[in-house]
Protein 1
Amino acid sequence: MSLEWLGAHKKFISELMRFGNAYALNYNTERDLGLDVKLSASEVQMMECIMNSEDKYLKMAKIAAQMGIPKSTFSKNIKKMVDKGLIEKYHMSDNKKEIIVRVSDYGRQLYDKYCEIVVKSLYGEVFRRLDELPPECEAKVAEILSIIARENSRTAKPKLEKIN
């Protein structure tokens, strides 16, 4: 099959796929950044998502859906993070089945240290490049990435129609 369908966007799509592959390769790898605990990108993302929704008292399943990961993966990672002291689990007083998670004080401290390290080592350069773009351009790229994430997260298989 020819790659002509990529048209003028071949370079962008190629780099996007390379990024996706590199990120997937390291997503669950715990990194030693000189902190008390090794952290993986998935754990950091989960802490960010939990902190971003703390005031909403979202159930674990809802947070997993926001992140685009299976509930079982989210639960498994939460258990590991509870064991590391990064996350605390709570029940709602009126419903013992619904579990609410919060980042612990210790988790917040590690998260803050992690952010200092990755801004210097990775995101500092990314942020400098993004600062060169007009805000509407950055918003458009974010929109494109959102479309790709949404379409790649769909669990339903496409219905195929035979072509004569």
Protein 2
Amino acid sequence: MSRILIDTTPLRECPPFRRLWMGQSLAAIGAQLTTMAVALEIHDLTKDPFMVGLVGVFALVPLMIMGLYGGSLIDNFDRRKVALVAATIQWSATLGLALAAWLGFENVWFLYAMVFVQYGANGVNAPARSAIIPRLVKRAQLPAANALNSTTWTVALMIGPLIGAVLVASFGYKVAYSVDALTFTAALYALFRLPSILPMRSDVSPGQPLRGWASVLDGFRFLTTRKNLRMTFFLDLAAMVFAFPIALFPAIADDILGGGKVTVGWLTSFTAMGMVVTLLLSGPLARVRRQGLVVTITVVGWGLSIAGFGVVLMVAGTTNPTSVIWWAFVASGLCLFAAGCFDAVSSVFRNVILQAATPDELRGRLQGIFTVTVAGGPNLGRTVSGGMAKGFAGVSPVPLGLAALVGGGLCVLAVGVLSKITPGFRQYDAENPEP
């Protein structure tokens, strides 16, 4: 069983990593709770899936700017301090959401503004934490450490939205946002307890650190010469931009499946359930050498699963049910569960490839680009799926289902094109990592 179940060696052997992992575990649940609450509040205020999807734009823009520039800060300053400052800003935005809810202030543009601040700060915090990990654990433990981090994120994705939906339905938005503010203090404490993580700057002369946008461009120049690293970014974008229909969930619950806010929470949680089950059985992943081939296969699996979800919705049709349509609810859950299984494996190996094939002095900048891709892709995907659903309204009786079906198909098509352009990625060997 020890060869099958998730490897917890980094937690046992590295106390700083253990504290970081535990703090982020609680904070991640609160973050997913707030993501769900914001989507539900915007849906309540506008009843427009496009406006819900527009959250992606207000998250993507600051994430791109700060994710890229933050990489320069991470590679030139104490990574612990950079992460701590960014996390404090995130926490302040969450407090703003909670305060507004308690005061009864309901405004869509205020919600967009708080999302803007949160994702801008996360654009620095997330890559800083990722760049810290290879300095805390041994290289041989990177697959295990990334599997543990992915498990944290997926457990949060599984229970956070459901908790958020239940809290909103039972107690309102003020309690939901307040719970997030409380859990985020655990992340601040964990970062505060970390040792100093000073960067290794072998790419610049002593006393003349390369900072600012020039440093960011240096990271991009490195990436342009590393085709395998580029593929990890492109494949993730193919999955998230074309086949990430989460912005449609509130409308799907109202128009097709029934069940209201609780159904929205379950739809989000099904994907995370698949990821959690896969990661808990991730022991064999440490023995996989053809990691590039596995990433390619699992991204195709994600696209097919989302396309299957779209087919279920189209068969169910738009009926505005007053109660849950159970057969469609279960079939949708199975499709999203399968998508989560594929995404879990892809996520672990994309992280491992990036960390193993990037020198330490460039990890902050590459992790910044990675964060823009991983977090920015889904937010752009929200807008794309919302826009497709709105565009298909005039050509299909079930535009929500058609948007998911077409998105999944585009994902598979994009993987095929990318694999044709970079066939060597499928030969990537974990024992001899070539960026």
Protein 3
Amino acid sequence: MYRRVLKNKNIMCYLAGAGISQLGNVLAGLAFLFISYELTESAALTTIIAISQAMPYLLFGLIGGAVADRGHKKRMLVWIDLLRIPLFFSLVIFHQVGMLAFWHLLTVAFVVQSLGCLYNPAYRALLPLITPLDQQTAVNSLLDTVTRGIQVLTPVFAIGLMSSGNIIHFYTIDALTYLASAMLILNIYWLEPIGEKDINKVQTQGIFRSIGVFVQWAKREETIKNLFVATFWMVFFNTWVWQVGLLLLLIDSYPGSGQQLYSLILGWYGVGVILTNIAIPYFWKTLTLPLYLGGSIVWGVGLVVLGCASNLPFYFAGVFIAAAGLPLSSLARVNLIQTLVPANMMGRAFSFNAVLLYGSNVLSLAVFGALAHTVGIQQLFIICGSLMVMAALFYLVRGVLTEHTRRKAVEPLE
């Protein structure tokens, strides 16, 4: 299966571009945090840098998807890659002459992520245009495997530069990855599946009007609507316990070695995700909303196991269960968007999905971060995991009942 997919030059260039870009993104993200703290020695200002990398998606995410649907995707992707190169080289040059200031980091972080609001939905919308329908599950699985694998391995790769005090050259590497990405995109060829009439219609609607058109369309599509609403709740219940709670839980349970165990468990989680991604196409050719909800149930069960864990094997078991559920849920969501959303709305669909994820992340960090002062971390894991399972079951039953009602309504007409 994978051998046939990887013979496709377009797909190979697409996956290589995604992996190279992810390498640069992870290195740049680390550099922004490390160098901002080095310059300011302020946890508050370092946090502002982190916020500056997330805020553009909340401000411009929907606009980015609308713009991606209006323009020539190859030209847009290449130009954005090329624009990001001088931005990162400017930080290196300012650092080398001793003029690098916090506001330089803040400005570049915000601008680069704002460009990402245009780049990411266009790049995601490109996959269905270069991939046969029967291979999309396999390609999505490979894409997730590549990006997550890079995310896990990049910090290990970065240790050498960190120990030599050359963190600033994370930006140099990042700039070079964008150049490589642009060259790979230039080698991808596809035909737009929508006609000139459809393109002109999108372009004459206006950006905000086109966003409204997509929202109205999504409201009428029951599967897409349920997918987006369910996604909001799954991410809301997961983000804090996974990003913050797991570290705190291990530090409380294993004083003195919690941070090391956290790094080890994240590596174990990466292994679980990669193995699951590779296995999925062998079991399912098409990923449906019930499979998305089933993956969410497994994901939630993993959080409950972590909340009930009393020794290290249970922590590893809970993380591995979550690692089995999350990629199935994630890939099913992407596949549903790719197959159910019209081609001339694909950019807006992926940008809407990204805004939904970032908004849910922010709310989760705020709400459960506040609750952690009064509720135990283990209890929060059990509560959040249980609510994920219940929400997934609710939408699963709702979907079955809706389908049953629809069939009953069709029978008299037949």
